[in-house]
Amino acid sequence: MTKTIRPLLAGNWKMNGTRASLDQIKAIGDGVKTPLSDKIDTLLCPPATLLYVATALCDDSPLAIGAQDCHQQVSGPHTGDISAEMIADCFGTHVIVGHSERRRNHAESDMLVRAKAHAAHEAGLTAIICLGETAYEHNSGQTLDVLKRELASSVPDDSTAESTVIAYEPVWAIGSGLIPTRENIEEAHGFIRSELVERFGNGGAGMRILYGGSVSGANARDLLDIPNVNGLLVGGQSLKAVDFLAIYAAFERQFA
Ligand SMILES: O=C[C@H](O)COP(=O)(O)O
Q1: Can you tell me which residues form the catalytic site (predicted)?
Q2: Closest CA to 250 of 176, 148, 232, 227
C-alpha cells in the first residue's frame, strides 16, 4: 500500500435499496464517524432514487454520497438518464462510470465511458472509472492487454489524482465469491500504476486504484496490504451497515 495515498472505501448498492433502506445509510454514515475518519475516505453510491435523501441524511457525516452512472451530456432528450450536473445538484460528489454491468447490459464502449468521466469532471465530480477482464480473458492470459486498452480508451486526458479514481474489478470476481490471487492483484495494480504514471506523471502516481470483486470483512485487510491497492469498491457487502462497517474496521486496523 502506498501510504501517502489517502485510502477510499466505496460501496455500490447497484439496483438495490428503497426508502426502507435509508436506516442502513444512516447507520453507515454514523458508523464511519470515528477518530480515524480524517485518514480514510468513505463513499456510498445508492440508487439514484435515494441520492438526494441520502446526502441530506449524511450531512453531518464524513460519508460521501455518489451515483452509479451519468449521461455524457449536461441535459437534453435522454429519457431515463441523469447528468453529472444533476448528481452534483443533489450534493453527490462521486460517480461510478464504466462498471462492467453497464458495459455489458448497456453495451457501453470505452469511448462512451471516457465521455462520461469527462462529463463528471466538468461537473466537479470525482469519476470512479471501472476496468477489468472477463473470465475468458483472465484464463487466456489477456488481463494486462485488457487493462492497457481500457486505461488508454476509458480514462480522459483531463484526469487528475483528485478528479479520478480507477477501480480494478475482474468481471469474474464480481458477486461470485471468487478473488484473484494476491500475486494477480499485485501485478494488475502495479501495471495500472505504471500506465497512469507514464501518462499522467505525478497525477498518475497519486491516483487511487481500488480493488473490487467479492470484498468482505474477512478479506479486506489482506487486500489492503497489497501494494497499489488504495482502497476497495464493495458491492453486496455494502448493503447492510453491519457488513460495510466490518470492512471499515479493517481499514481502521490497516491505517491506524
Ligand atoms: O461495484 C462493485 C462490484 O461490482 C463488486 O461487487 P461485489 O462486492 O458484490 O462482488
Answers
A1: 99, 169
A2: 232
Testing ligand 1's pocket by substitution, the residue of 13, 214, 239, 247 carrying the most ligand atoms inside 8 A of its CB is 214
Task: State yes or no: pLDDT of 85 exceeds 50.
Answer: yes
pTM metric for this prediction:
0.97
Separation between Cα atoms, residue 46 and residue 51, nearest integer Å: 6
Question: Average pLDDT of 60-80?
Answer: 98
Hey, how many other C-beta atoms are within 10 angstroms of the C-beta on 14?
19
By DSSP bridging, strand 126-131 and strand 164-168 are parallel
Q: Where are the alpha helices (DSSP H) in 123-211?
A: 135-139, 143-154, 182-200, 202-206
pLDDT tens profile 91-131: 999 999 999 999 999 999 999 999 999 999 999 999 999 99
Burial of 30 (0-12, 13-18, 19+ CB in 10 A): middle
Q: Residues enclosing ligand 1, CB less than 6 A? A: 12, 99, 169, 174-175, 212-215, 233-237
Q: What is the mean pLDDT of the chain?
A: 97
Domains recognised in the chain with CATH numbers: 41-233 (3.20.20.70)
Give the H or E element holding residue 246.
helix 241-255
Note the Cα 74 to chain centre separation in Å. Answer: 22
- What sign does the dihedral 138-143-147-153 (CA atoms) show? negative
Please check whether residue 209 is in contact with residue 166, taking contact to mean a CB–CB distance below 8 angstroms: yes
214 assigned ligand-binding residue: yes
Place of cell 454520497: 65
Q: What is the ipTM of this complex?
A: 0.99
In the residue annotation, 133 being an active-site residue is answered as no
